[in-house]
Amino acid sequence: MKLSEDEVRRITLDTITELGENATPELVKQKVKEKIEKLSEGSVSFPIGSTSSGRVILTAFGLNKPGIVAAITKSIAESNCDIQDLSQKLMGDFFTMIMIVDLSTSPKDLKGLQKDMAKIAEELKIKIYLQHEDVFKFMHRI
Amino acid sequence: MPYEFEEILETIRMTEIEHFDIRTVTLGISLRDCHDRNLEVAKQKIYDKILKYGKNHVKLAKEVESQFGISIANKRISVTPVSIPFDSLKQDEFIEIAKILDKAAEEIGVDYLAGYSALVQKGMTNGELELIRSIPEALSQTKRVCSSVNVASTKAGINMDAVLMMSEVIKSTAEKTKNNDSIGCAKLVVFANAVEDNPFVAGAFHGVSEPEVVLNVGISGPGVVLDAVKEAGKVDLHQLSEVIKKTIFKITRAGELIGRKTAEKLGVQFGIVDISLAPTPAEGDSIADILKAMGVEDVGAPGTTAALAMLNDSVKKAGLMASSSVGGLSGAFIPVSEDLGMIRAVQAGNLSLEKLEAMTAVCSVGLDMVAIPGDTSSSTIAGIIADECAIGVINDKTTAVRIIPAFGKKVGDFVDYGGLLGKAPVMSVRKLRCDNFVGRGGRIPAPSRSLTN
Questions:
Q1: In this complex, do B254 and A135 lie within 8 Å of one another by their Cβ atoms?
Q2: Structural domains present in chain B
Q3: A75-117: per-residue pLDDT in tens?
């Protein structure tokens, strides 16, 4: 996991405040290192053994045009789902977006959401795929 | 993001473009407690038991399908080799059993149910004899029932009496189903070293050492491997084997996930993942195309067997790493009718039956979905089966023969079943005779490698 400079600075400042009077350059350095390691562990120890997290991965792609992100996120919000991560890239005129959506708070199941997305995909002439997170976990993480 | 962009796109590409799917989830059901002195009661017991465990099989598998976005091409059932629990029955009664199996399969909505089988590598009981005699009638009177007979094993040798008998059964099945391009033969497999947990129909059966109910999964995905091989470009064979292994690893993991989830939903034990590369007649879903992408001009060219051996071995190695429950046949299937590339190779005259036989020494099964002229004599078919069994017995591997002596057809004609069974060009068979050899009967003794203790 990569941390931005700002995040490292924030962690450092927090550590200095925590240590208060005891803060020495060596101690701060050590504590910050520990914290950062702990953070990156968090992302690696992503709950791999535990299946059925309720999270799905939404992948959308097609020709870029205004309103794709808006249409998809609006529908997700209306279904009371939580977007936990979002990454979007343009490759030339080609729009790609990958989203991690948590369904556990939604009254809808994956099928329901798939139906909504199929409608949006047709309107905007793009492709939207929704697959359970476990598939990616099993295929790409040991 | 916990996953890389490329990883996610790779999975999407595999499932959406390269035809990666789970080829079959097969529910194995034991029928060993279904025997009864009264045939009607036995039939009812069979029907009730299959329905009890299988009635939600299709529905739940579909749920898993939509949950994970990976399609499951087939949902199937396998049962205990029917000759075992019903050893006391007569020929006509066995046909009744086949009919009730067919009815149960139809009721729960599976396209095939396999296990109308007998294991006779060392000899036959009276019941097994009756069952084998009933096969042509049973397959012609049912739609969904598949049959297999194991006639040889490394431990027991080759039961040539059974081989001869099966060649006649095949001929007779072809004739009885002549109106449908001898389709009965597409549902009949003769095995050497049959495995007990194979999920792939038509050769599946629920082995005697299996639990009450178990779910086995067969993965597929020649299209995924084909693209990976193409993408690898001009690398040496060592590197190419790495490429294949990495791809197979990923699809096996997905297969295991789908299997476990379906078993969990059904509330039954999860058995094995069979990592066979199984082609379908769809464009790009072909083992032949992989072999060509590896560098042979067409299937049948010198080098084909070596390429297939490497492919088969890479599949096994990657599968073993990806899943701790690898079983079944696990390798690369080379059915002719179910693979467009193989069909083309036969049509172009590049692939002969003899070369195909050599390839079966290194593939995962054997001569599969091969159509031959309808006037081929039963002793020639027995010779083909015996050859295939010899390859299996001596190399300690499973081999099988699913051959279709297409009634009334000649070399150059086609048998066409549509769907997953595809269409097969009728291949020419050597006219040299082997009557005096196969006609001797008896048993070819087990090879020295059977004495491993």
A1: yes
A2: 28-54+73-192 (3.20.70.20), 215-436 (3.20.70.20)
A3: 999 999 999 999 888 888 888 899 999 988 888 888 888 889 9
